[in-house]
Amino acid sequence: MDEMTPWPAASPGGGRADVPVRGEDAGEAFWSGDSWARFTQQWRRRWWVPLATSALALLLAVTVLRLWPAQYTATLLVAPTARAGLAAMGARAPVGGTPEGPAAGTRPVEFGRADEGLSDFARFLHLAVSTPVAADLLAETALATALFPGRWDAQNGVWTHPTDVAGRFRRFVLALVGREDWRVPDSVILGRHLRRAVTVDAIGGGPVHRLTFRHPDRATALLVLDRLTRTADAHLRREAARRAEATIAHIDALLRAKQDEYQRNALTNLRIEVALSRAMLDADLPFAADLLEPPSAPAQPDWPDPLMVLALAPGLGGVAGVFIVAVLAGFRGPAAPPQDPAGAGGPRTPMARPNSGGPKEGRISLFAWENATG
Predict the structure, then answer these.
(1) pTM score, two decimals?
(2) What domains can be seen in the chain, in order of their start residue?
């Protein structure tokens, strides 16, 4: 028959006497504690922690807003030039002849998947934040220095390393691994900076795109977006002109070599169309992207939004405080056992529990006692 182990009476000091239980039961009692009871106990003791972390987060948010330079958000809207109509017609004309004309059948045929086609507007969106455009922007010293104000020594007129804490820390980390920080920005560095700073978003999934750029100086933010769009469109215009001129030169070479009258007529018609397209490229019209809305920015800095930051900071601080209380509840161990209804030191009715594991007894914590009585 299993041996019964009675529970001892309370100690004279009001606490519980040592409880003899088996070693296996002590381990099971330790791993089966009531986490919610521990958390509520820690919450009653440390309810002020979330309030303190919320106040600290609010103070930190105010400090960051005071130290962080406010920026202006400049935006513009662009869309592809229209294939038909005069309101958004670009400086282009059809190339390759008409299906009914003498040059019918001379249109180039592109083999491959349907999604391999890349329009001029898609090339424009890519070039706007690319290395070739960045190389052209670097030619304007005033614009380059405005994009990297911390690396420009206006007094001496030379590029230098940043002297702020972040710049010094960056140079220190690079020096640890045997590398050096860059001093003079090049097209690759500026292109990488533009890809991080300029945001290109499609509005409603349609062809209209919004370009966004933020900078502490409003005039610089507007100027950067204007230069990006003009430079990217000019790159595509020059490439189209180069290809048209190369096509005309090749057609002229073929005309000198061909003797067949039918072939010469077809090449002549094709040359006229290509020459018309080349002439239209010189018109003062957008080539790949039509500017729907010019660059604009608010009169006052709008980023970061102080109202949103100050509204979110206390909430995040409160969440962090609750997490701290939960962690403390996990490390502090079990909750305190319930008080003896009979009073401290009063008599307790003996209880029995089966002890089939033999007379293995030892001292355990109050948490094991609470679990055993539950």
Answers:
(1) 0.66
(2) 1-11+18-34+338-374 (no CATH), 69-94+117-148+185-303 (3.30.1890)
